[in-house]
Amino acid sequence: MKRNVLLITGLTALLPILNSCKEDGKQPIAEVVSQEIKIQPTEFSTKYDAEIDKIIAQMTPEEKIGMLHGNSMFTTTGVERLHIPELKMGDGPLGVREELERDTWTPLGLDNDFATFFPAGGGLSATWNPEMAALFGKSIGAEARARGKDILLAPAINIIRTPVGGRTFEYFSEDPFLNAMIAVPYTTGVQSQDVGVCIKHYAVNNQETNRGTVDVLLDERTLREIYLPAFKATIDAGAYSVMGAYNKLRGHYLCENEYMLQDILKGEWGFKGIVISDWAAVHSSVKSVENGLDIEMGSNLAFDDFYLANPLLDSLKAGKIDEKTIDGSVKRIMRVMFNLKRMGDTLSRKKGGLNTPEHIENAYKIASESIVLLKNTENLLPLSTDNLQSIAVIGDNAERKFASGGFGAGVKTKSEVSAMEGLKNRLPENITINYAQGYKESYDDNQTNMSYGRKLSYEADEAMIAEAVEAATKSDVAVIFAGSNRSVESEAADRETLQLPFGQEKLIAAVKNANPKTIVVIIAGGPFDLRKVEQSTSALIWSWFNGSEGGNALADVILGNINPSGKLPWTLPKELKDSPAHATNSFPGDESVTYKEGILVGYRWFDTQKIEPLYPFGYGLSYTDFQYNQVNTDMDTYDKNATIHVNVKISNSGSIDGKETVQLYVSQPGSNVDKAFQELKAFNKVAIKAGETLNVPLSFKASDLAYYDESKSAWVVEPGTYTLRIGSSSRDIRGEQTISIK
Ligand code: BGC
To answer: Which atom of ligand 1 is nearest to the CA of 91?
Structure first.
């Protein structure tokens, strides 16, 4: 399966773009950020198969089955006499997790397993920059390698169906195209380091509530158009492994779901790698293996009692499963091992590097492109330090760190710069910082031993507010660092509401009242109801659980050393009930959940139903202004297999350099089938110097306009007229062009 062509289906924008547009000859072509990376699909080879068959012929059933299940929290068993090593896995996606005891979740407390903390999913996708995703992948891949891992349990690419999802902070987007544009370079980046990704969680694992049992019911078109494209794109790019999710789809658990594993993944998509279960997500022996699961991982039972351990051996001995089926799994595992140089040419395997200055710098680069400027109506930002004598730094998130907390994968990191440390690093020494915590984490329950899903308190601490008001009153400006943290947003529990916890709205209003020059920074992984905050402030920034360098990047944005260029990777709704899963009363379900909104996930719902969000998908301001001028296409009418090239002339009319993500949405008002009002089909992030005008190329294939026709089980491009809508966000469209498809 040699792939030497640079072709990733549906991701035309990642291909080198031909300069075939009718562009204004006088203007230079934009330096297209996403063009700089040459996305090389992983060369996932089957050339070792004959050699692998010979090894399998020498194996006993016990040896084969040893490879099919965990024998510690994160490893399988090898076969020493045949030089088959164990397969070593490690959690991502925020950084390589610390080492644990063999059979518990207790950390070993080593001093050599620190790792770089990279920005969480929302931060990475908010860069809208595939180059950043490649850098992320390469860096975390190198760290995984240096830590001796074969498989990194990342990236996590489920679609964000609800803003209150416990793992929204880990996932990338509500949009399948942006999701794939980040997931693919992440994947090939990791795998360039001789470490395999494990794309998770396949599939429709879109909620934490009842995640171990819930049966997800959705129509085929929605599955294909919304929930599967990023998975398919990473498989096309050569992903080595996939993680089967906890939940069911149409009555069958994902780790034994014949339709999803055999028919789609291995059949239609031709996946040649390994399917690994999520931890303790397996419910059967024979059914799982026959339907496509290769490795069972988990922590609940003695490892020999796993479904894919002794029970599978017993079934084999009793003739309930063909040994050839088991051989198939063993072969796929060794195929991945050979590709990773875990077997075969082990000497030339990359060695990686841990906590290197380069990785810290890459974490900084990613963070500095991820921060979203939401509001700046009085131009308080960037904050000038001329004549500034004092600054009130307020809020629990000023000093808080985000590498770990809650349930699930965290990173034990040596360095994480908090917002406060970032400011101290960047502010001139003569400026006085007046700190007040302002609010504190508190809960309306006694479950102090729970790291997730606790009942949040919404009460303000009046004494803390008084302190904050005092700090703000005596300072020239106030900066509030509010939002959530890793306990508020966590794997294993969804949030109950969108409300900002711990009385933060009251704090923000009081501080703003005390000092009109108040800047609010929300640090969070997923949406919160910011209506009140938005009303009481003129300067609003969104940042993320943003990695080892999060605080430095944030300080640089506040002080204008970095011009913000992040854009929201999801819709920030006014109220929870405006969001599709909640508007249709189809979250979280009980034994089953029906995705009643169908294809209208995220902005597709808001735009089609004409519901005003607080901030729309793709939104993010800059300290400069971008003028969109002409939009041209290379032709008016295209064949169904053509590529559509679009050129947009954009000027930076402000006085500082900046980066803009030009977004292209497509509408098809005359369609014979129900469609979303618009869908993102291309984007390009470009750097434009102050005063400069650039031609920005965008492209996509006519086949990207297809919808999934359930009656034909096929993708269909309707002939007819399509409107290309080009803009700075999904709700800030600056130019349109109409094209026809024959
Ligand atoms: C999570 C996975 C993770 C695994 C191992 C599960 O609870 O869903 O994402 O990789 O644990 O830590």
So the answer is: 10
